[in-house]
Hints:
Layout: H1 33-42, E1 50-54, H2 58-61, H3 70-73, E2 83-86, H4 88-93, E3 102-106, E4 108-109, E5 121-122, H5 126-131, E6 136-141, H6 148-165, E7 169-173, H7 183-195, E8 200-203, H8 210-215, E9 221-224, H9 231-243, E10 248-251, H10 253-256, H11 261-274, H12 278-289
Parallel strand pairs: 1-2, 1-10, 2-3, 3-6, 6-7, 7-8, 8-9, 9-10
Antiparallel strand pairs: 4-5
Helix pairs in contact: 9-11, 9-12, 11-12
Amino acid sequence: MPEADTRDDKSFHEDIPSPEQGFFLKGSGAYDWGMKNRLARIFRPDSGRTVMLAIDHGYFQGPTTGLERVDLNIVPIAPYADALMLTRGILRSTIPATFRGGVVMRASGGPSILKDLSNERIAVDIEDAARMNVHAVAVQVFVGGEYETQSIENLTRLVDAGFRYGIPVLGVTAVGKELTRDARYLGLATRICAELGAQVVKTYYVDEGFEKVTAGCPVPIVMAGGKKLPELEALDMAYRAVQEGAAGVDMGRNIFQSESPAAMVRAVAKVVHEGARPAEAHELYRELSVPAVHA
């Protein structure tokens, strides 16, 4: 048996109050420790922002250009991102278990690009997400789409399951051909996701009114990269998004379809975490894109 500690000179620092354990992310102060810890694996505590690399496109459109070989194209650049957004199939088959970044797993799916994409179902059991130790699950929400109510039910069911296991839910606002991409629509869609429990919301950037979209959403918004743009334009979009309230970006094609994906993800990180202006970040991209000359 260990000896009893009978010393009377213990120091409790009575003159120093215990600190309040606040949290750095918008709207996240009331979550349990496990959920906060997972969010802190996706968002950097020092900046409050994230650079997520989205590589989940194959769940509805197959081998997307730039993602033909995730092991060759993505695994080498993954350490430059704060988190990966991907499917459980790619996570299990291709991403090394030694990966230290955040993992956001696509949890909805069903139709391919050949069908109505809004007809999604929950495609992952929350227990499997916990088994793989992911840091969030993502679900598409089709506000205004043919299967709007169904997709919202997918979100709410995952939110309920996520609270049981301490796993955050990323609500992804879908924008189809029939839906208007403007601040009014995105404000509606993002607010619905947050009101129904999503801990983070992913949405598109718009030139006018984006700051109202982020201000009206009580949880962090990350900007979707969207279609492939020239590198400087993509960096400018990321810069404007974070300046107008986004808590980071979730880019896919603008990184993995770049001429130099490794350079692009680092340039995006300089914008998101250091506040670099687009021209400065683009110069970094150009410098990192130059092949090394060996003597």
